[in-house]
Specification:
The chain is an alpha+beta fold and 267 residues long. It folds into two domains: 136 residues, 2-Layer Sandwich (Beta Polymerase, domain 2); 100 residues. It is built from eleven helices and seven strands. The protein has a five-stranded mixed β-sheet. Strand 3 and strand 4 form a beta hairpin. Helix 6 runs antiparallel to helix 7 and helix 7 packs across helix 8. The longest helix has 19 residues. The chain is globular. The protein starts with 13 loop residues before the first helix and ends with a helix.
Length: 267
Amino acid sequence: MLPMELRTSCGVSAAMRMRIQQTLCALEEEYQIRILYACESGSRGWGFASTDSDYDVRFIYVHRPEWYLRVESGRDVIEMPIDDELDVCGWELRKTLGLIKRSNPTLMEWLDSPIVYRNEERATAALRALLPDYFSGLRGRYHYLSMARKNFRGYLQGEEVRLKKYFYVLRPLLAVRWIEAGKGVPPMRFEQLVAGTVDDADLLDEIAQLLHAKCEASEAKYGPRMKKIHEFIQYELDDNLSRCEMVDNVACSDDVLNRLLFQEVNG
């Protein structure tokens, strides 16, 4: 059980939910698509939004059948201009299935988001059912370690650091721990990652302090280095740290992916 200090509520207001639903409906009309799934990504989905965090809406969509009957493939991403509050982006279903085949961690996170705006249950259940067979611990570990190293070098070298950047290193490192423990796809929620990977009381206490400060402050807030967290990060990123062997044993057949694409395009 997590300490109470680690349990946060970074939800979405009724007014913003309505605006997001209206945006999704407008995209369906404009592009003649059907949105199968839409969720919150980023800090709100992870569970540590600041007071001024924007809304990162991600969705999976399918076109009408005739869109797929072309010599040249069409654009498979829909992106809206970003404003101060709303960042909306979607991936077409064939692209989505290709990313699942390649064990894309970002897409797998979307399907575990705790904040869902659109959910066609048949399609979403089918997509989630694919994940255990197509998740690669080897590729996932590489993805999260690379992300942590890049963000640590880029954002956490000074004596004063932006608090939000700690999470951009800490969360991927906990995902690595989750994967190396054999737990499969890491959960999107930060509190679940912490609960499943951290048992050091002092580190838990400092993470709770950081989480409280992040959710009470603006995105731009700076603060002094946090000793226990910084030590943990440096230890986990040590090039000499012995890591367990992992095998890239993901499913290789396209049959189930093709069947799902056919089903939803013709649905």
